[in-house]
Prior knowledge:
The chain is an alpha+beta fold. It is 24% helix and 34% strand. Strands 1, 2, 3, 4, 7, 8, 11, 12 and 13 form a nine-stranded antiparallel β-sheet that branches. Strands 5-6-9-10 form a four-stranded antiparallel β-sheet, with no helix packed on it. The longest helix is centred in the last third of the chain and has 22 residues, at 173-194. The protein starts with a helix and ends with a helix.
Amino acid sequence: MQKITHTAVGVILFLVSAVSQAVTLQNGDVLFFTTVAGSQVSGVGAGDQIFDSAGLEAQNGLAIGSTQPTVPDIDQLWTSSVVGVQGYHRTTSSVDVLSASTLDFSGWVMSLGGTDDYAFGAQQGVANYTFDGTNFTVDYHWDANTYNGGVGLGSLSVTVYDLHLAGTVVPVPAAVWLFGSGLLGLIGIARRNKA
């Protein structure tokens, strides 16, 4: 009876641990987003104040804990709706989990037309996220008036940049291995107790 109790307690603790980790993003998690879920980037240019936006779709997704220069690309190449320039996103440093609701976005860069790099993460490096164990949202806001002395970035002089990503998370592979090894361990304990 005591052995069965110990095994049951072990299983409960393991499951509680797995569930508690599920609602916080982990290094190795990959965020896949689609335009269907409303993922988009928008910005406002200085001068004529043209509002421009584009729908975003993941190519390889945003990998937590990794730097993603241009390969593997985070998103599919997209075209802005007003100016018509093409762009994509990359990182110059890894996107790391800061807390249960924030990500380190200090290395977040938007590239336009193959030449302009808008280093939006350089001054305001924190993005907010939600995660329910399967689905996520990421929201990031940059405003030149707050973070760059009112000076816009790039040849389009972007003064306001907003990013919204929504989609599903592919869990960190290590968690799968941990779950599998834990399960095998419990099976081994049960067999040993039977013998």
